[in-house]
Amino acid sequence: MAWRFKASKYKNAAPIVPKPEACIRDVCVGSYQTYGNNICASAAFMAFNWEHVGSSMAVLPLDDCGRKSKTMPLLHAHSDTITDMEFSPFHDGLLLTGSQDSLVKVWHIPPEGLKESLSTPECSLSQKQRRVENVGFHPVADGLIHVASGHELSLWDLTQQKEAFVNRDHSEVIQSTSWKKDGKLLATSCKDKKVRILDPRAAAPILDVANSHQNIKDSRIVWLGDQDRILTTGFDSARLRQIIIRDVRNFSQPQKTLELDCSTGILMPLFDADTNMLFLAGKGDTTILYMELTDKEPYLIEGLRHSGEQTKGACLVPKRALRVMEGEVNRVLQLTGSSVVPIMYQVPRKSYREYHADLYPDTAGTLTYLSAPMWLDSLDHPVPNISLNPADNNCTQIHRGDLDKVVKAILSMPPLKKTEAKKTAVSPRIEDLKPLPKTLPTPDPEEDRIDFVNVKDLIKGMERQTKEPKETNGFSKKITDNGHENSTKSYECEQNETTDEKTGKTEKTVDKSDSIESPEGSMSRSNSLVNGAPTQAPKPLPRSSISEPGSADEPSEVPKPKPRTTASQISGYKPRLGPKPFSASSGSEEFSFDKVFSVPTVPGLKSDAVTSPASTEATTPVSAPLVKDSSEEKDKSLSPTSDMDNQPSKEEYINGKSDTSLEEEVNSSDSGYRPKTPSTAERRKMFESTECGAGVQSIADRRRAYELRSLSALEPPPSPSPAPPSPAPLRRRDSLKSRKSPDREEKRSSVPNVTTKRTSTVFGKVSKFRHLKGTPGHKSTQVENIKNISRQISGECNGFYANGVRCAVPLAGGGGRLGVVELPAGASPVSRGAAPPPGGLHPPAVLHPAALQDWCWDPFRDDRLMVACDDGLIREWIIPENGLQESTNEPNRIFSAHPDKIYIIRFHPTASDILTTAAHDLTVKIWDLSVDEPKAEIVLTGHTEQIYALDWSPCGEHLATLCKDGLIRVYAPRSSASPLRSGAGPAGSRGGRLVWALGGTHLVVTGFDKVSERQILLYSATQLEAPLCTLGLDVSPAVLQPHLDHDSATLFLTGRGDSTIYCYEVTGEAPHLCALSHHRCATLHQGICFLQKNLVAVEKVEFARALRLTNGNIEPLSFTVPRIKSELFQDDLFPATLVTWQPWQGAQGWLQGRPAPPRHRSLQPPGMPALSSHAASSPAPAAKPPPQKPKPDLIKSHLPTDLKDKQETIMKSMSAKVEVNLKLEQDNMEGVDESEWDQ
Questions:
Q1: Does 453 or 384 have the greater pLDDT score?
Q2: Burial, 1183: exposed, middle or buried (Cβ in 10 Å; 0-12, 13-18, 19+)?
Q3: Collapsing DSSP states into helix, strand and coil, what is residue 878?
Q4: Rg of the chain over CA atoms, in angstroms?
Q5: How far apart are CA 242 and CA 890, in angstroms?
Q6: Cα gap 402→122, rounded to integer Å
Q7: 341 in Cβ contact with 23 (< 8 Å)
Q8: For the residues of 1104-1126, what is the DSSP string, one character each?
Q9: Mean local confidence (pLDDT), 755-760
Q10: CA 454 – CA 458 distance, rounded (Å)
Q11: Long-range contacts for 256-264 (Cβ within 8 Å, ≥24 apart)?
Q12: 661/637 Cα distance (integer angstroms)
């Protein structure tokens, strides 16, 4: 029973939540019905679902924090919700995703992260129109992935991008999968309430089956490391959350069953096999459980819980990314609705100054010797373990390039022998190693009489006893890609198989190690490669150190750079505190302090040219004066007047730094130099002394020039090659350069002569609408809680249409129900409806016997509504002036337009009573509604597929259509029934829209490309062969609905189910589409409709007004431009606009081809002065100005000349302007009676 009282190291592991500033905030995460965790992490990045649809992903650095912009680069991965994702254990930038669109994709994230949105995968694998549930990498074999899709479990070989294994023995959907740590067996949980153990390489893959949680709700499974046990989470028959532990050797009987609570959140188990720590995060829960797993009763020991925000997803961070010098044993990334919270689990210790090896057992590394073809050929080999000790330099990020490079590295792996591959290659412990023969030299009897301990020799002897190459398995020091470069050593090199020749080499190495470190011992400090990625430690300042000579015939060795004493994770050096222990190795050797203490580098010499003082006799007398010069140079560089010294040539500088720059001295911790940052007063004094005489006259100019020099060191350097990271704190960029750099001198000389450039010359064309702002209307102007809004509408319909008085929304129910809602007062200048009832609105509707397809309001009449149904009939409804009071099924008139369903219906923009329809019969008909029985006056042909969209030009002369056959057609309907010209449109076939732009000279087309990415294309209306501009937006199934404000050339785009309205300015010059400030709504919208230009509030600088239909509300949306003088009419924003609310001519006039001159109208309200006239009247008139009195010279006014006259002048002017009141204040006070003085 003693084991019951055994104290666990991780019993008191406490969750530590950082401050909000250290979390990732303002992210957009929805609720997804998936079997995945919605977030994953590698040692370099984290990735999680983005937006409510979840088809895109945000990929951020692991240590990122702060608020995130809504326009940051995203991974537009799929066209539907991403169900699962995972990073490769051997490549921190290789990401695997699966989605509801039946596709599995592999992505490569660059080492620097996403600088722009990414939508092109490395490869795409299809799952035959089945939703993908789980994806993951094999834990041992590189290039092997597993995919669970529906009832099938498959393995894919990425080297060939082919399916290598398929199992269809599951009777229901596979909910979860997990590999054993050695990669031999796979466990699955299924919706049929069973768990299975599979060996994909066996003849009968399913080895065992057992009944599991007796509820069909989501269940998860995880293999408990190398143990023969699995753990599952799910629900029992009473809907209680349940945990079951099973031993695969007695699979039918659960080893432990634990009921938790009756919450509905799905438990996501996160297990760390190294520490046996289990974290349980429930979707929708605010608590994350921590339990420790044991191999005996009670099996699960609960630890400290974490309570915080509601969980949307969770994952564990790889052990290589932990802060081991802070006692962090695990880190959980919690995904919430608006943030990502890193929860650090820390074991409390008295001090964290040392590495606590007992908390960090060796963990699986990133170096594997097994490829996917080898594993499929029944070869096994475990992944070698690595130590998390920072001195071993194993905790580095691994980047191996794109998938092609990874595949080449996998295929270049040396083959394994089947007989030897099954052996487990366990790295030997230090205490188990036998000392190598002849490693310890015979101790000199003279040394026994030394009064102090030779610590250096003692450490050397310990290194000889524990010398062993780490995780190379007999490979040479040179490692490429996966560590499989052909070398002189064989793969299965045993320690006892050594020849005499090899023993001789070992003896020579040991003898040589008296003066330098052995190559094997410095393996972690060298520029080695792990899985094809170099892991380099930061280059410190070289130093000349003591070097004990070996034999006389051995050449002297160049001293190696010594380590820095920082605790940076990227450093692979063993930190050494304090000075080096010193002693004379032999009595004949001459003692010198130059051999003991660190000596700074020689200015002007390369680091590899610096040699040890003890290496040769010729270098010894030279080192002393050079050291003196170095110290003098360093002191001189710190002087504020050092800028006036001799100027060195630019050839001595690389990227603005010289070999004697302060940056190298900052990087060196052994030199003893600590740079002093000058104070603000010193910098100001230095600046004034060097620049006041350069022509700067005024204080304002001098201050402006001084502020221009304050560039942050966070800004990118001008050199294309990035500088290595520095352990020094962030400082001014100029302070890291040499004080005598020519670049700084040029910069200083140019500061007084800096002239402010126009913004357009730096950033190109700057739009007046760049900072447009969208503001929703007040609650009193909104229509709230509309009942039974239907979402089942056709893809060609925008779903919501309105004018300034009323709007039409689709309602759920039998047939086609179209609700007519009167807009309340304030929603638009002409709306006059009453406020809706607070309990909910059941709007009266116009009823149709067939399903709705499209509808539109007459732009010239607020009461006429035209509705098209899938029966080919068009119904005209005339709404009463006070609105529709009750539902009706009696239209004003009905006429048959097409033999089959009608897709689109639109009115003509300039002629009254002209209606356009497009239907399933691939024709476009133009109708004259001015007659009692409408008839098709014009029939346009030429379409071969379904018509997605059509739009009239602003003047009403031309009609453009977008078809499913991928062509854009432009018609002149009054001239010909055939298209004037046609051209290729978007490559995708999922729908699209188009709108005329730039006065009818261009076309803006929205659609999809081949990988379902939403695109915006700009065409010239006269040349449709190729687009002038193509802009990829994101991956979403919603079709972008465009609206163009022709006066400002502002393009508004949004889709059904989106929450963002994208804004661009369309120009005739490159880049043609200039991004403006996008507007993000608080909720998703089903449709949006822009009102006519005469309904905008010009006095509020409102240039566009829209109505937005959400889940049950209609809210006005105002787009304004910030202006200071808003009381003036901004005539630069509001030119004379085209009249679209009154017809230019009648139907017969347009059909007969009569020309109609364009009608324009100014939007300037009466009595509101224009901005241009106000600006023109503000300066003095152009005529000869009257003579003005010269302004007094304030400098000469202080001179003592004519002092009396100036005093009199000042007194007269002050007396004339100031009213003098000689009445005193106390005269207004009430007096006191004489009798009161006596009291």
A1: 384
A2: exposed
A3: strand
A4: 40
A5: 60
A6: 7
A7: yes
A8: EEEEEE-SS-EEEEEEE---S-T
A9: 38
A10: 6
A11: 256/298, 256/299, 256/300, 258/300, 262/238, 264/239
A12: 9
Angle, helix 699-708 to helix 680-691, in steps of 10 degrees: 110
Q: What are phi and psi of 247, to 5 degrees?
A: -100, 125
Q: What angle do CA 540, 546, 547 make, to 5 degrees?
A: 105
User: Which residues, other chains included, contact 49 with Cβ-Cβ below 8 Å and sequence gap of 6+?
Assistant: 29, 30, 32, 38, 39, 56, 57, 81, 82, 313
CB crowding 723-761: b at 16 or more within 10 Å, else e: eeebbbeebebbbbbbbbbbbbeebbeebbeeeeeeeee
Report how far residue 544's alpha carbon sits from residue 557's, in angstroms, rounded to the nearest whole number.
11
Average pLDDT over residues 179-189: 95
**406 vs 434 pLDDT, higher one:** 406
Residues 298-332 pLDDT 10s: 899 999 999 999 999 999 999 999 999 999 999 99
Neighbouring residues of 672: CB distance < 8 A, sequence distance ≥ 6: 598, 600
Retrieve residue 935's tokens: 């008839």
Cα of 1008 vs its chain's centroid, Å: 23
Burial of residue 709, with CB atoms counted within 10 A of its CB: 0-12 exposed, 13-18 middle, 19 or more buried: middle
How big is the CA angle at 345 (ends 344 and 346), to the nearest 5 degrees?
105
What token pair was written down for 1103? 């240039």
Q: Where are the alpha helices (DSSP H) in 639-741?
A: 662-667, 680-691, 699-708
Q: Tell me which of 185 and 485 has the higher pLDDT.
A: 185
Q: How many residues would you count in the chain?
A: 1239
Alpha-carbon gap, residue 880 to 863, rounded angstroms: 7
> H helices within 949-1068, ranges in order?
none
Unique residue bearing structure tokens 């996966």: 482
Burial class for 4, CB neighbours closer than 10 Å (0-12, 13-18, 19+): exposed
Listed residue (908, 901, 904, 915) closest to 873, CA to CA: 901
pLDDT tens digits for range 665-693: 434 434 444 444 555 556 555 555 554 44
Backbone dihedral region of 316: left (phi > 0), alpha (psi from -120 to 50 degrees) or beta?
beta
- Distance (Å, rounded) from C-alpha 942 to C-alpha 957? 19
> Per-residue pLDDT tens for 1119-1150?
999 998 888 999 999 999 999 999 999 999 99
Strand order through the sheet with 174-179: 174-179, 186-190, 194-198, 206-211
Task: Please say if the pLDDT value at position 1062 is more than 80.
Answer: yes
Most confident of 50-59, 591-600, 604-613, 1107-1116: 1107-1116
Coil vs helix vs strand at 638: helix
Both structure tokens of 690: 């060097």
Rounded to an integer, what distance in angstroms lies between the CA atom of residue 505 and that of residue 1171? 90
SS (H, E, C) 449-463: HCCCCCHHHHHHHHH
Do 604 and 659 contact (CB within 8 A), yes or no? yes
Residue 298: asked if its preceding bond is cis (omega within 30°), the reply is yes
CA–CA distance, 793 with 903 (Å, rounded to integer): 11
Q: Which residues make Cβ contacts (< 8 Å) with residue 258, sequence separation at least 6?
A: 242, 243, 244, 300
**952 in Cβ contact with 959 (< 8 Å):** yes
Which contiguous run of DSSP H or E holds residue 749? helix 742-750
Shortest CA distance to 412 belongs to which of 385, 377, 373?
Answer: 373
Buried b / exposed e over 618-650, threshold 16 CB at 10 Å, is ebbeebeebbeebeebbeebeeeeebeeeeeee
Q: Is the pLDDT of residue 395 over 50?
A: yes
Q: Residues 1071, 784: contact at Cβ < 8 Å?
A: no
CB 996 within 8 A of CB 953: yes
